[in-house]
UniProtKB/TrEMBL annotation:
<keyword id="KW-0560">Oxidoreductase</keyword>
<keyword id="KW-0521">NADP</keyword>
<dbReference type="InterPro" id="IPR002347">
    <property type="entry name" value="SDR_fam"/>
</dbReference>
<dbReference type="GO" id="GO:0016491">
    <property type="term" value="F:oxidoreductase activity"/>
</dbReference>
<dbReference type="InterPro" id="IPR036291">
    <property type="entry name" value="NAD(P)-bd_dom_sf"/>
</dbReference>
<dbReference type="InterPro" id="IPR020904">
    <property type="entry name" value="Sc_DH/Rdtase_CS"/>
</dbReference>
<dbReference type="Pfam" id="PF00106">
    <property type="entry name" value="adh_short"/>
</dbReference>
<comment type="similarity">
    <text>Belongs to the short-chain dehydrogenases/reductases (SDR) family.</text>
</comment>
<protein>
    <submittedName>
        <fullName>NADP-dependent dehydrogenase-like protein</fullName>
    </submittedName>
</protein>
Amino acid sequence: MAFPYKKVLLIGATSGIGLEIAKRLAKEGIDVIAVGRRQSRLDEFVSKAADPGKAFGVAFDIAEIDKIPAFAQSITQAHPDLDCVILNAGIQYVMDFSKPHTVDVSKIQHEITVNYVSMVALTHAFVPFFQTNSTEKKESAIIYTTSGLITIPYPMVLNYCASKAALHSFILSVREQLGQNPDNQKINVVELVVPLVQTELHDGQPGWGPDFNPGMPVASFVDAAMAGLAAKTTTVAVGQAEALYAEFEAEKERRVGPQWAAIRKAFGKAQSFD
Ligand SMILES: NC(=O)c1ccc[n+]([C@@H]2O[C@H](COP(=O)([O-])OP(=O)(O)OC[C@H]3O[C@@H](n4cnc5c(N)ncnc54)[C@H](OP(=O)(O)O)[C@@H]3O)[C@@H](O)[C@H]2O)c1
């Protein structure tokens, strides 16, 4: 099965999971607009792409929230055939609240900004464009990268876990909001739930290094992720994250729809934006 979209904006494409997905998509003949802060990595991706005419690099720091609307506008103007956005960028900080003097509060804010607020702002910026696609009966997708740590938080990276759990909650609700509106029904909201993977995310973390990197190899992870995305599965959970998701989250995903329907029925107009 092939990847279902033709032109992808991939945010967080300069290393690890994003770079590997970008290379696979480019190899499949899909246009890829790669985004990250490191220009040299973007240049390298474009120059090595099988067809450099179908690969693009745009340097952008998604933490600059106020610049996101202009960024989205410039992308959709330059690429009116865009039909998929993959929101994959992420950062992870180790922090220990038992030694509060070591905790840098600005890092808490930055991690929430990159992993959550920017994702929400990017959704807000791209939905109007995809709504136009949808009314023209063209299918589009917003694909978010979360983590197995949405299910069981891990204390060493506690704020990271909170940021990804927040993003997971947002994904469930935004999928419902878009799905409820007939104009948006061709916008697929997809969540990629990632297990521990060997990437730069863990560089510099205590105890991690060439002798200790227990995650899944990036290539094997991306094999499974691409298969799930090609099958148009709404939630693509891979490796250890698949079992965790099935145990802790799948039931919630099954129950929220009927729960929301019951609330709407009980409260009527009070639960509607009309
Ligand atoms: N590796 C794991 O074990 C694991 C587990 C669960 C979930 N995940 C998630 O998987 C996703 C990909 O991470 P990875 O493991 O592949 O790590 P990675 O190799 O460190 O890649 C992170 C990507 O995010 C981009 N990024 C970070 N901050 C950014 C910013 N302010 N603006 C724009 N781009 C930014 C980086 O690009 P620049 O540095 O060039 O900006 C890079 O392309 C993340 O959302 C991560 O949370 C990873």
